[in-house]
Amino acid sequence: MTSPVPHFDLDFGITCIDVEYIRPRMACCYLIVHNGKAAIIETGTNFSVPLILQCLRDKGLSVNDVELIIPTHVHLDHAGGVGSLMQECPQATLLIHPRGARHMIAPQKLTEACKMVYGEAEFVEMYGELVPVEESRVQIMEDKETVSLSGRDLNFLDSPGHAKHHFVIYDEMSKGVFTGDIFGACYPELTSSKGPFIIPPTSPSQFDPDAWYSSLDRLMELNCERAYLTHFGAVNDLPELAVDIRRRIESSSALALGCKSAENLFESIVEALTRETKKDLQEHGIQLGEAEFHKLLAGDIEVSAQGLELWVNQI
Ligand SMILES: [Zn+2]
Hints:
This protein has helices spanning 49-58, 76-79, 82-88, 101-105, 108-118, 120-127, 209-221, 238-258, 265-283, 290-314, and strands spanning 7-9, 14-18, 28-34, 37-41, 66-70, 93-96, 138-140, 146-149, 152-158, 167-171, 176-180, 226-229, 233-235. By secondary structure, the protein is an alpha/beta fold. Strands 1-2-3-4-5-6-7 form a 7-stranded mixed sheet, with helices on one face. Strands 8-9-10-11-12-13 form a 6-stranded mixed sheet. The protein is globular and about 55 Å long.
């Protein structure tokens, strides 16, 4: 039987699985298989878990082969399915940032915070109910710690800026880094002859531009050949993209600060980001109609504006 699961193989035993969050090619997770053992980086939401299990079956793997489940941070498009997936994979250990662990063990606070962003009804529709993870199955990964997947080293690097509970995972074998949100989002629909169009998700509530720049500097010191983005897929040309994302973080921050005295701060930031993004897209050689722009970017701009609004009010 052919599988409807939208996953595709990359090199080095890595598979990209579309977690079908909001729309196709918006968010993914990655399966790494090495010597018959598996690590899953990011989980998508509760509703993504069946897609991950189907991918394992398609590859002839059992849930017992999954040794590591590794969300880069605890935002729910990355970690909303962790508890459910841990239940399905009884041998797996959850590897998590020190600041993220308690939210996976007792997800009530995280649930409440996200309901503030999305509203109750939308939250339930998008994420379902978060399942707690047994504390004994949780391993905290500190900065520069390494873990072995059946002999394959995965190295962890603390990377605040998008969120304080964010790390990236360096995989020596692929010379690649799993970047969560710290290296931005590049949707396949927005790639032109000039390369991918990179967007910094300045989501609530821990956006910190200076920390973000430092994290990018540390990430670039790894001299990686590729980055595995959660939104969406693998990218090369990291030095060029690092310049782009830094420039867009700077311009988003400056635009938000410029709106500080506006009567309606949030609306003003949304308008400014929309204007700037349309201008940048045009310069990148991407022509989008209003409906397509809305479908691909309006949601991101709204969440990014929420994060920028909080940040402006704090400084
Ligand atoms: Zn995030």
